[in-house]
Design brief:
The longest helix is centred in the last third of the chain and has 21 residues. About 30% of the residues are buried. This protein has about 210 residues and is of the alpha/beta class. A hairpin with a 6-residue loop joins strand 1 and strand 2. The C terminus is likely disordered. The chain is built from eight helices and seven strands. It comes from Priestia aryabhattai (Bacillus aryabhattai). Pfam families: DUF1643.
């Protein structure tokens, strides 16, 4: 295994850490993106416990590139400090931009921000970037947030993370096919209905392509 090469993106003051990009292969370009809660105060290229765990998992799963982005880009050791800031101060002006980019070119996205997703309702805001992507988590907390990366024990399996936007589209497509079934007898369209249930987003793309 090659040494891990890191590229960190801060704001001009060094207060906000927008992205951490890690690479350890010259040939494997498969990219995994983790979305965590907030970056801890560390030196530029030193890793906190969460980052070390993400790197370990990415390598174990066969990826060659890892990017870590955050709900809140403000560097702090305690979530309570984020609550003392305004929402704009806690999030950072370019956080959404870097989340969107990290998600768009990822092969797999894992969300692991814990109950911190409730702060300033950030979970719902960030979920809009996860549309049409394979998104996973390590299970849910009692409050139904994706478990925090530091709560994950050895051999915890990934679970599909259902993004509300994707779920709504799936329901809309199923309703559309049910209308067709009622109009044309239903049985002849059962394979189509099965496809919408198993791969709803793929079906949406097929329908959309007919009108492009």
């Amino acid at each position: 295994m090659d040494a891990v090469k890191k590229e960190v993106i801060f704001d001009e003051t060094g207060t906000y850490k927008y992205s951490l990009l890690c690479k350890w292969s010259e040939v494997n370009e498969r990219k995994l993106t983790f979305i965590l809660s907030f970056p801890e105060n560390t030196y530029e290229y030193s890793d906190d416990t969460a980052v070390s765990k993400c790197i370990e998992l990415a390598q174990k799963w066969g990826f060659g590139v890892l990017e870590i982005v955050y709900l809140f880009s403000y560097q702090t050791d305690h979530v309570s400090f984020l609550r003392m800031l305004s929402k704009e101060e806690a999030v950072g002006t370019r956080t959404g931009e870097y989340i969107q980019k990290a998600v768009e070119d990822a092969e797999l996205v894992v969300v692991a921000w814990g109950d911190h997703g409730s702060v300033y309702n950030r979970q719902e805001e960030v979920e809009r970037f996860l549309k049409h992507k394979p998104v996973y988590c390590f299970g849910k907390t009692k409050q139904q947030f994706p478990r925090h990366i530091l709560s994950v024990v050895h051999r915890t399996e990934l679970q599909k993370y259902e993004v509300p936007a994707n779920r709504e589209e799936s329901e809309e497509v199923s309703s559309f096919i049910e209308d067709i079934d009622q109009s044309f007898g239903g049985e002849d369209y059962s394979p189509i209905k099965q496809l919408t249930e198993e791969e709803p987003l793929m079906f949406i793309e097929d329908i959309a392509s007919m009108y492009r």
